[in-house]
């Protein structure tokens, strides 16, 4: 029996201690077959890592947040990345927000 790449990545991301590997797992999740933009499991896998101490991981999360089109739960964390201490995280947050489309007025003051 084959294991779906998406399921493998989801399982590994929950326990992966190395930031370099975790970043690859998280940034690859949206591209796995069977993952759709409104997939709640994708947001569930990303949100626990939103405040990771590694900028590499936060950048990967921001990238993947841009692909969570139907999940509004990720928007506050993504907007918070606009104030991240790391410039590459802020840059990726800008790209992700552009992918997601317009920001509702309630979030525009962030």
From TrEMBL:
This is HEAT repeat domain-containing protein. It comes from the Bacteria. It comes from Streptomyces caledonius. SUPFAM superfamilies: ARM repeat. Pfam families: HEAT_2.
